[in-house]
Amino acid sequence: MMSSGKTGSSGVRVPRRSPPKQEKAQYIMFAVVAVLVITVVLVVAFGGRKGTSAKVPQRTKSVATRLTETGSAASRRSREQFASRASRRERSKKESTGDFRARRRRERAERRTVASRTSIRSSRGGYTARRSGTPVLQAIISQPDGERVAVVGSRQVKKGDLIEGRRITEVGPDRVKIEYFTKTYEVRLNQPIY
């Protein structure tokens, strides 16, 4: 027991006692906190998993066996579900092989290249062809009036023209200056413009 700093009339220290209501409140608070902690631990330990019980492997019957066993409408539905599950299982086995994955990858790559070559509707109302890859500065042509024209991809552009969001600021004898947002850079012949 703790003794208080007070002394009684005889000079002996009197032990300090807390009131009985505070003791009960402390015990109740401790019990509530303990229950909450145990609940949180149980939820974390068991609540995050689905199907915590050990799964027993089921013996699957063949579709033919199931067809001969039952004939009602409910059993027909279960047969159809079983058949679709079996076909999905076989399909997933086939898809797990490396050859199948490689073939799918090739097909996707072919679809992307075909899509990049097809024509699309532009925002200005006309049709434009999508090009795969970045446009390359192919040539610079001097016209009779002294103005130079750059051939970028299959387009002829001059000073002030836009190509794929980039503005041509200067066309030199062997290079072109391009402005994109606030940056200016030079592109020489046979180089991509970005």
Layout: helices, strands, pairs:
Blueprint: E1 3-7, E2 13-15, H1 20-47, H2 63-69, H3 73-95, H4 98-117, E3 119-121, E4 127-129, E5 137-142, E6 148-152, E7 155-157, E8 162-163, E9 166-171, E10 175-180, E11 183-188
Antiparallel strand pairs: 1-2, 3-4, 5-6, 6-7, 8-9, 9-10, 10-11
As for the CATH topology of the domain at 134-188, it is SH3 type barrels
- Strand runs, count: 11
CATH architecture descriptor name of the domain at 134-188: Roll
Order of helices and strands: EEHHHHEEEEEEEEE
Overall structural class, as computed from helix and strand content, comes to: alpha+beta
- Helix fraction? 40-55%
Query: How many helices does DSSP assign?
Result: 4
- Main sheet makeup: 4 strands, antiparallel
Please supply descriptive tags for the structure shown above.
single chain, 194 residues, alpha+beta, SH3 type barrels, three-stranded antiparallel β-sheet, elongated
What does this 3D model show about the protein?
40% of the residues lie in helices and 25% in strands. With 194 residues, it is of the alpha+beta class. Among the domains are: 33 residues; 55 residues, SH3 type barrels (Roll). The protein has a 4-stranded antiparallel beta sheet with strand order 8-9-10-11, with no helix packed on it. The model has no long low-confidence stretch (mean pLDDT 76).
Brief overview:
With 194 residues, this protein is of the alpha+beta class.
